[in-house]
Amino acid sequence: MPGLLSDALAWVVILTFAVGALSAKRNDRFARYVTVAAWVGFAVFWLQLVPHFAFVHKSYVEGILSIAAVPASLYTGYLLWGGRDSLFVLSRAVAAMGIIYLPFETIPAFALFGLSLPAPRGVLMEVVAAQTEFLVNALGYHPEMIHSEEGFYNTFVFWDGDHRLTVEVVLACTGLGSIAIFAGLIAAVEAPLRRKLRALAIAVPVIYGLNLLRTTFITIAFGKQYMQWFVDEILLLFGSSDPYMVSFFISDRIISQLLAVVVLIGITYLVVRELPELLTIIEDVLFLVTGDEYDLASDLGLDQSRA
After folding, report:
1. Do 219 and 140 meet the contact criterion of CB atoms below 8 Å apart?
2. Residue 92 is a catalytic residue
3. What is the Cα–Cα distance from 186 to 193, expressed in whole angstroms?
4. What is the Cα gyration radius of the chain?
5. What span, in angstroms and rounded, lies between the C-alpha atoms of 155 and 145?
6. In a designed cystine with 20, which of 34, 74, 129, 154 is the match (CB 3.0 to 4.6 A)?
7. Residues 6 or more apart whose Cβ sits within 8 Å of residue 190
8. What is the spatial distance between Cα 287 and Cα 281, in angstroms, rounded to a whole number?
């Protein structure tokens, strides 16, 4: 995220979603007001992230999605205000996603009772970096591992002649975002705990394992400059003047991010087979996009009432 203001806004929005979720069964009117306000705040949150994703992060996929999230959030609030109560489930999911993800994003290292406790994101990044190093080494590559400027042991060093190339495993490289999405969706629906746990057991290991393959692929492709294709065109497309970044843009911003969309759709299908209750959220999302109502349970032949 861009900075402290964005982190603070994220917490305010997520906590507002949480208040709405907790009050839904006690005071419908209050919950509706609060949750609609949360969706408006969510739109503001995504709006202020657009320049970061589009111009700083140079990610067309994330930039386009953040732009689309602004009207989508406002429209969701409008529909909820108008009485589409099924959107309370999606709202609960957003609250759960944020509560899972934000501690890793925003809590720094701190001291407690004389003990120095590391930042949660630092621990996660270093774990993923170590596992990525194992896979990179297993494939016959042996870059040096060093500490980043933030002090985390999560950075690979390659050399292309006399030119030094570094690959840093940041929080976005850990798969936490995707895991938080599925965990939030699973937590939000009403279903037996054992099926929720089975759904988590499908989603989390698959996401984590595939993410390690992604970080390994990007590390090697960029570190060894294996994808120096269409250099001038790629530099123009991403607004960069550094030819060494071409392999990174192709491996990460194009190939990995597009494949991630396909993979997430596949994981969603597998999870829904175990937890059909999620179809309520998916149907609402499809309605937001198309304006049409869907009955996916009937279309897919799934029983939402099973224990």
Report:
1. no
2. no
3. 10
4. 21
5. 6
6. 34
7. 277
8. 10
Rounded to two decimals, what is the model's pTM?
0.90
| Given 32, 121, 173, 253, the catalytic residue | 173
Residue 258, amino acid? L
Concatenate the DSSP letters of all residues of the chain into one string.
Answer: ---HHHHHHHHHHHHHHHHHHHHTTT-HHHHHHHHHHHHHHHHHHHHHHHHIIIIIS--HHHHHHHHHHHHHHHHHHHHHHTT-TTHHHHHHHHHHHHHHHHHHHH---EEETTEEEPPHHHHHHHHHHHHHHHHHHHTT---EEE--TTS-S-EEEEEETTEEEEEE--GGGTTHHHHHHHHHHHHHS---HHHHHHHHHHHHHHHHHHHHHHHHHHHHHHHTTTT--SHHHHHHHHT---GGGHHHIIIIIIIIHHHHHHHHHHHHHHHHHH-GGGHHHHHHHHHHHHS----HHHHHT--TT--
Structure tokens at 183: 């965990």
Which candidate in 214, 253, 273, 306 is catalytic?
Answer: 214
Question: How do the pLDDT tens digits run along the chain, 307 residues long?
Answer: 456 678 899 999 999 999 999 998 888 899 999 999 999 999 999 999 888 887 777 677 788 889 999 999 999 999 999 999 999 999 999 999 999 999 999 988 765 566 777 889 999 999 999 999 999 999 999 999 999 999 999 999 999 999 999 999 999 999 999 999 999 999 999 999 999 999 999 999 999 999 999 999 999 999 999 999 999 999 999 989 999 999 999 999 999 999 999 999 999 999 999 999 999 999 999 999 898 998 888 877 776 555 5
Reference 250, options 233, 267, 263; nearest CA is 233
Sequence ranges of the domains in the chain: 1-106, 118-307
